[in-house]
Each structure stands twice: as C-alpha cells, then as structure tokens.
Amino acid sequence: MIDINLLTSLSDNIRIDQEKCNACGRCVEVCVLDNLRLQLSPCRQACPLGMNCQGYIRLLSQGRMDKGLETVKEVIPFGGILGRVCSRPCEAACSRLKIDGQPVAIRDLKRFLTDQDGQPGYPSVAQELPQKVAIVGAGPAGLAAAFYLRKWGFRVTLYDKESLPGGLLCWAIPEFRLPKKIVEGELSFIQPMGIEFVGNRILGKDLELNLLEREFNAILLAMGAHGRMKLGIPGEDDDAVFPVLDFMKRVRQKKSPPVGKRVVVIGGGNAAVDAAQTARRLGAEKVQLVSLEKRHEMPAFSWSVTEAEEEGIHIQNGWGPKAFRLKGKRVSGITLKKCTALYDSQGRFSPIYDEKTRIEVAADTVILAIGQRPETDGLDSSLYGPMGVLCDPVTLQTPNPKIFVAGDFIGGPKTIVEGMSQGKEAALSIERFLLGEDLYYGRKNGSIYELQFEPDLSRAKTRSRLSMPSLKVPQRKGFKEVALGYSKEEAVAEAERCLNCGMPFGLRSCWFCLPCEIECPEKALYVEIPYLLR
Description:
The protein is of the alpha/beta class.
C-alpha cells in the first residue's frame, strides 16, 4: 500500500487567472477552511480607507468603467472629492516607482471614473434599527460616519455649525481645486438616505452634550479643528490680517475682501498655498508665501506648490514673522527673521531663529495659515487632557462609552482621506457598541492578508505616466477648475500601466469545497480537483 500524505497531495491546486483577477478578495472571505490569503497590493495597503485601487484600475484598463465605478463606490460615496483633493498615499507606495520612477495616476483615475457617473445612486439601508446616533460635525469624518451608520440601518442626525454640510470641503478648499458642484453632488446622499441634517448648531451654545446623551444611544464628535493659532506679535488683529479659514470662507461665500496689490501668506501647508493662489486670482499683483520650512520640508503637497510657483507665487523658505509694520494703525508690511532650525534636540517643533538676519516685506494684506487646533468648548473635562481629546486609538471611544470622536477633532488637522477613514472606523465602533459586540475584534489584524511580499515585476516595461491635462497658466484668471481630467483614451492608457500586484494564493490545504470558485465574480479562480470528484 502506498503511503500518501493527504495534505501534501492537495497542494498547489488553486489556479488564478491573473488577467481576470482584480484582487477583490471575495475568494479569501468565503474560504471555509481558511486556506486562502490575499497579497494586498501596496496601494491598497497605503489607502487609509482600504480602497481596492488595483481593482478599479484593472477594470478601467479593460474598458469596464461601470464595474470600476462600482468598486470605488463600494467603499465611499466621495470618489469625485477624493479624486481631486486626496493626498495620494497610494501613489507613494505604487510598485511602478520601481520600474520607471513614476507611480500610476491612481487618484486621477478615480476622478475619471466618478466623473462618468451621471446620476449618483445611493445604497439601500440594510434594515431599520431603533438606535439613534448623533453626529456633531458635518465635515469629512462626520459625513463618512453618517453614510455608514445610516447604510447599516441606524437613525442618524447630523449637526453642524454651518447652515450646510461639508465642513472644510465647502469653506476651506478653493473652487479651482474642488468645484462646488462636485461637493454638492456627492453630499446629495444625505436626504435620500434618511439622514436628518440640522445646521447652525454649535456644541456648548445651541447643543448641550448632556442633552444629546439623553436623546441618543451614541454620539460622535467630529467638529474638526477650527481654533485659531496666533503668532502673538503686535498688529496681528489688524483688519488687513486674516486667519486663513476666515479668508477662504469669505471667498467661497462670494464676499471676498479687497486684498490690494501685495499679499503675504504666512505658512507652509496646503491652506497657505491655496490662500496664495486665491489671492492671486483676486487681483493681487505680487503674492509671497513665507514658510519656516525649506522647500523640500514644506507640509503642503509638492504638486500644489509646483502649481503655485507656475502661477507666479514667490516662496520665501526658511523665514518666520518677527513683527508687523504699521502705517498709522494699518499694516503696511512685515519683518521676517531667518529660521535656522525647526526642531529642538528632542525632536519637538520649536523653531530657532537668527534674530540678526532680517528682511522687510511690503504688504497690503497678510493671511495667516499657521495651523488650527480643536476647540473643546461644551465638553466635560473628563473627555480631554493636556494633549487634547482622550480616546482609544483603535476604537476612538472616549472615557464616556457612549461618546466617540473622529477626524481633526483628535489631535488637529489631518488629510481629507484620513478624516474620512477615521469617520468610517468610528462608525464601525458605534455599530458594535450599539449591537453589544466586541469593539476590538478583527481590527489591526490582517490575518487574511499577506502584507509582506515581492510583486512579480518580471513582465513590467517602462511606460511614462500620462500628465493630467490642465488649464494653461494664462487661463487661470478666475476660479475655473485647473485640472481638466483625462479623456477615456488617456484614462485607459494610464490604467494599463498598473502592474496588478495583489493576488490570492492557497496555503496547501484545499479540500475542494469550492465556494471560492463559485463566488468569484470574475471567474478568475479555478480549483483543480479529480474529474470524478468534481
């Protein structure tokens, strides 16, 4: 009698058609014996929302735009927003960088797909549940949480201090980067899904947290970070000196202040760059952006800084404000001092200056974009400490088990995609809390995913990235969107650069139960088993 090791004989019998597979992971999810693993593509690992970038790009490369769009909308209804203002962490991880130094234009391809969406659809509510959730703050984090919680069946009321939902998506990002019609279109899910929106409500003034606790089964605080940081130098409160969020909001409300001929923007982040470009469009002849950081250290997106420089924004790197110059009672300029270091010996942000090295800059208007902080007005003192709001870093639950937090309200400004991701995570915690389930189960546990692997790049060929078509610099006079979007032919060609890195594989213990093969939506998986047994 021949001795056969059954487990060994069942090895390597799962076949994957790489041309068909888009790494959706369905086969891994339904494997009864936990035999399958999914090599998670680097772009998907890097996405805070866990979006299957590989999947929608693969489908686009095959000309299946409707399925690609469906893949985006499975995760979040804000593809048009993220397709324009996402920070692109996926592209920084793209395997294409190893081939030709240029990642696939993942964000721009997401934009292309969502721009084809004629009439946004809304997911059906799974079931109507009795529990009520209050969300305070209708920015990226609050909106994402509201979407998921309502999708799962909870009754959601969304509060915000503004009259309309959107937060910084509406008031802080210029229209030439994120058009109003895109935001309005993607926020139109609120009413059809049955989410109640209540505007003009501020926690601690029009809303009392203890009253919300009595009325709702759970509360999410996602008020953002709108507290103004100050320089603490004379002249800062002059009428010609604007906090950046106030300035940008006035512009979005069509109430732009006169900026004069010379504008100075203090700050090195995205808000500073946006404000500088906005001031230019309002008629300023000379706009200078003053940043403590060196050019390569600026926190603003490199592509945004490049765009600003194309438009004639002059960037002064390595300088900080010392004093405002006054002509009578009005600001007429600013004195800058040389910044020699940003951090102290402990790595803490603590700029060091050469007080003797100074320059004078004339200004009719100064815009301060030096950061924001969360405001804790209306919170019980047990919910925050010296470092800010207190919460579990995984579940986002505060010391009060009914209250959760998300977004910029935790620790200050984040990127939009990070805020949405935290809203999604908070929603999951709230769902589990309301259903009496464990809040930690399966989190930070990639057991069904293979995260450390070397993608097969043997067939990769050098192929340059297609640049996003944009308005020519002389045409950038008003607030028309600068990035014009790919054509279908350009989008498909760029999608074909994807190396399709992620792939499922077996762990040598298949027992022919076949749900993986049956459930595969692309018919990309085949289990080799004896003919008579099949």
